[in-house]
Amino acid sequence: MAIKSPPNPAPILTSLQPAKGKLTSQLKQKLGFGLLTAVSTFTVLPIIALGIFILVQGIPSISWEFITGYPREGMRAGGILPAIVGTFYLTLGTAIFSVPPGIAAAIYLSEYAAENRFTRLIRIAMINLSGIPSVVYGLFGLGLFVLFLQFGSSILAASLTLSIMTLPVIISATEEALRSVPQSFRVVSISLGASRWQTIWRIVLPQSLPGIITGVILGLERAAGETAPILFTGAAFFLPRLPTSPMDETMALPYHLFVISTQVPGMPVQIQYGTVLVLLVFVLGMNLTATVIRSRARARRQW
Amino acid sequence: MVNIVMEKIVIDNLSIQYSDGVESLQGINLKIPANAVTVLFGPAGGGKSTLLRTINRLNDLADVAKCQGRVLIDGENILEPDTDVINLRRKVGMVFSRPVPLPLSISKNISYALEVAGERNKARLEEKVERALRQVALWDEVYDRLNDPAIALSGGQQQRLCLARVMALEPEIILLDEPTSALDPISTAKIETLLKELSASITIILAPHNTQQAARMADYAAFLLQGELIEFGKGQDLFLNPTDKRTADYVRGRFG
Amino acid sequence: MTTTRPTSTQNLSLEKVLSLFIRLAGYLSVLYVSLICLFLLKEGLPALREVEGESLLGRVWYPIEGYFGILPLLMGSLVVTVGAALIATPLGVSTAVFISEVAPQWAKEVLKPLVEILAGIPSVVLGFIGILVLSPFFRQAMNLPTGLTAFTGAVLLGWAAVPTIASISEDALNTVPRAYREAAMALGATHWQTIWGVTVPAARSGILTAITLGLGRVIGETMAVMMVTGNAPVVPEGLQALFLPVRTMTATIASEMGEVAKGSTHYHVLFFIGITLFILSLIFNITAFALSARKIKRSERLLS
């Protein structure tokens, strides 16, 4: 766009006047920005519409009984407490099995690992893990945890399955957060006589903590909303009591929603909307927390 | 006791090569006197940074393919694999070309090194923070905002903070890698004055960012060219009467 | 004048234990992938023995009668994924560029959380919306016999993949140093030229990763696709097949695994489909990794 090698070199001054090429590029920019605005609006508007729609449809069915009661009449009446509690347990179990190793693995990749063939292998494995379809995790959980290790269909088996699925999310978010801390901080810290671990613990981790927490919450949020991995590893179709041990099967909100919206004929639509609303509040509540943490951290960041 | 020059650091036939082939050192022999400013100068890529980073083993972080020879500090070879590098780095402080305040408050920036060294006594920490800040003439400018983030300071203040951070450890040696390259002339002058004062009790090795600074600061000077030590001597001698033609050319601005 | 320096040894044993834990955790991903391969192969390979090859590649999926042709399922997945990719990529990257480079501050603060909310919507909720809203809408708008079609699936999944692509791309764009942009502007480039000539290329590896992850979500999508694509295991032929029901591989596993006897042929074939899905995602991800790895290397050299 800039210089099209004119046959006679133009005097320098003309370049200060609005040249033709410049005008077109200004116009292009206007059109481009307009298009981007339109596309973004088009993407985002349905989310708002959806939120309002579900809120309006779902709120009337939310009651104390719905939140704290047990399902009755073949799930066509009563509450969804077992599903709420089940999803909470599954999320907690996933966190236990995925957060500590996930953060540690990210520290390894960002702070310890040399860029060699083995590290490449780890990265390929991670990218591979994050690409594996969720239902394949379900198959794997069925094969390893439920059948081979004989955990049976249980909260334990389902949490372990979900944790493997969540691991790459946590690792890559954490690693990104760690790497965003400027290298010069590490060099300075080491030069002041801090050990590698002290540098990580006192400088790198605090600086990347908001990013790490955000990544962890987003990973767990995904696990909380997943259905496919728990289909054959721990989710119960209908179980009107609370699980008492990690070896119990459990109802879970997402699976329950699937069941009542496709598997139960004559399901009152009110209960379906109520369940969607509860599930969304659960999941999006985590999302909101993550967003708040991140935006606060960005505002406070010193580099 | 009076006229004998004490050698703080003896560099003995030191050769270093990075795995990507840039900047290297070839057979450096150098005796750095105690309690004086020794200037390492020469064109970029001559090996000044590498030499500095070897003295506090910061090069351990880099991809070094080959490292031969010895670096003796008080007679002890610090290149031995069993050297306590952490204690070494506490003894040999370093200031970098860009001021890099850690993402902490002003006082925490200074107490950081003490805290990682295991100091937990608050009163003692505060006292050392104040002393270090006074040593670099920063105390009067910041005493009322010690808990503000260090990044809020001006560039010159930041660099003095970085120097104070090193001073807090009461080091025996300070390495400075073009410490004033990002600073204005006034801040530069302040740092230079400080270094001169400190050199009464501390061995200072400075890679200046230009020849004028080298000439101003040098008690002793070493001219490095493409990884080789060309000439070493007292500051005035080297800058006024260089013996090697390459040194003379460089000092008179003929190349580089 | 010698000060007592506490030695660094007191923390050393703790540091060693932590380092070991960190190292082991680093290898965990490799272990998991190996285990996944192992168990998929163990449970899936018997299918090759129990079903003749021709039948596995056949056009009929009717397990009760012993027809285990996975071609219709494969094609079903392909149609939905390609459709979703065509929708998600331009929408996602545009949204990211808009948020990161163009939008005024207030718009950013509205858009970003909204996009993240979309990312957080569980696939079963999307499926629910698909059944209740999207599919009746498409059925009426296009006068179709059913709204549960490949097209509905593609639209839903494409939309669902936008936030993954957008938010990760945006993070990548944000990490491009401001100096790059300022340099380009100083050379007389317009804002628009700077975006496409400097900023986006500089964030290329992050954007590629974003697209990979977004499409990974589409390929692996199970619940939503099972709920809205009509579940008909038919080989899609021609463009009009887009508006007919299909059945993806993921949906097949999800809907049938619960009812098969462990160790039966049907069970093994479902695992075999799992292997197929696994390999597909493998090929896809390794390609994307190879594409972005070159860029990573270069930027790491810049860092040191």
Task: Provide an overview of this structure.
The complex is a heterotrimer of chains A (303), B (256) and C (304). Chain A contains ten helices and two strands, in the order ααββαααααααα. Chain A has 303 residues and is mostly helical. Chain A has a two-stranded antiparallel sheet. In chain A, helix 7 runs antiparallel to helix 8 (196-225) and helix 8 runs antiparallel to helix 10. Residues 1-6 and 9-15 of chain A have low confidence and may be disordered. In chain C, strand 1 (61-62) and strand 2 (67-68) form a beta hairpin. The longest helix of chain C is centred in the last third of the chain and has 39 residues, at 265-303. Helices cover 74% and strands 1% of the residues of chain C. Residues 1-9 and 298-304 of chain C have low confidence and may be disordered. Chains in contact: A-B, A-C, B-C. The A-B interface holds A 182, 184-195, 198, 202-203, 206-207, 302-303 and B 56, 58, 61, 86-87, 89-90, 93-94, 96, 98, 100, 102-103, 112-113, 115-117, 149, 151, 162, 165-166, 169.
Helices and strands, with pairings:
The complex is a heterotrimer of chains A (303), B (256) and C (304).
Chain A: H1 20-58, H2 64-68, E1 71-72, E2 77-78, H3 81-112, H4 117-131, H5 134-148, H6 155-179, H7 183-191, H8 196-225, H9 253-263, H10 269-300
Antiparallel strand pairs in A: 1-2
Helix pairs in contact in A: 1-10, 3-6, 3-8, 3-9, 4-6, 5-6, 6-8, 7-8, 8-10, 9-10
Chain B: E1 7-18, E2 25-33, E3 37-41, H1 48-55, E4 64-73, E5 76-77, H2 85-91, E6 92-95, H3 106-116, H4 122-135, H5 139-142, H6 155-167, E7 173-177, H7 185-198, E8 203-207, H8 211-217, E9 220-225, E10 228-234, H9 235-240, H10 245-251
Chain C: H1 12-44, H2 46-50, H3 53-56, E1 61-62, E2 67-68, H4 71-102, H5 105-120, H6 123-142, H7 150-174, H8 178-186, H9 191-202, H10 204-220, H11 223-228, H12 249-256, H13 265-303
Antiparallel strand pairs in C: 1-2
Gist?
The complex is a heterotrimer of chains A (303), B (256) and C (304). Chain A has helices spanning 20-58, 64-68, 81-112, 117-131, 134-148, 155-179, 183-191, 196-225, 253-263, 269-300, and strands spanning 71-72, 77-78. By secondary structure, chain A is mostly helical.
